[in-house]
Amino acid sequence: MRAARRPKKVNIEPNIEALVRYLEAQNDILAAYLYGSYGTAHQTVLSDIDITLLFYRERRPDLRRLLSLEADIASICGEDDVNVLVLNDADVILQHRVLETGRVLVEKEPAAVSDFRERVFVIYGDFEPFYRAFCRDYDRVLREAFVCDRPRQGEGQDKLSQTQSGASSPTGKDSNPGLHGKVSGVPCGSPSATDLH
What we know:
The protein is 41% helix and 12% strand. The protein is of the alpha+beta class.
């Protein structure tokens, strides 16, 4: 286990060719991508290996198959900290992120991959404005609950009571407008490109 030894950044580059050969040999896998912080400026000693697999629609894996794949991939990479995700089942936000920023390991049939990519981008384009609005509202509610309603040090109990009762500021405007409007990184539920099938 990584926790049992001195932390260091994982490096699977020497094993990438072997990993690609293994993935190409699996007849149920259409495409595979390496995504997440690995190999980016955001990688740290705590970063793991995130691999997502796109399966042929008629060959979706059961749990036993998925666990077997994850064990094989971890063995090939020489790392215990490997996460394997089924891209078909991911929400459209993650599907879009993988296709936009992920590193291609395998893409067996360009036409089939392009069809999947097109579905993802169409659904993401329709859903993204609602996702942004939801995150803005979520962010606003969290800030109102945990930041705006928290009294500053030295403020009296009367001020605390006024804040908690929801009383507006004397001007009738938002007393803390600078706290709102930022899109939060809070994960939100979203549809998947495979929800239509």
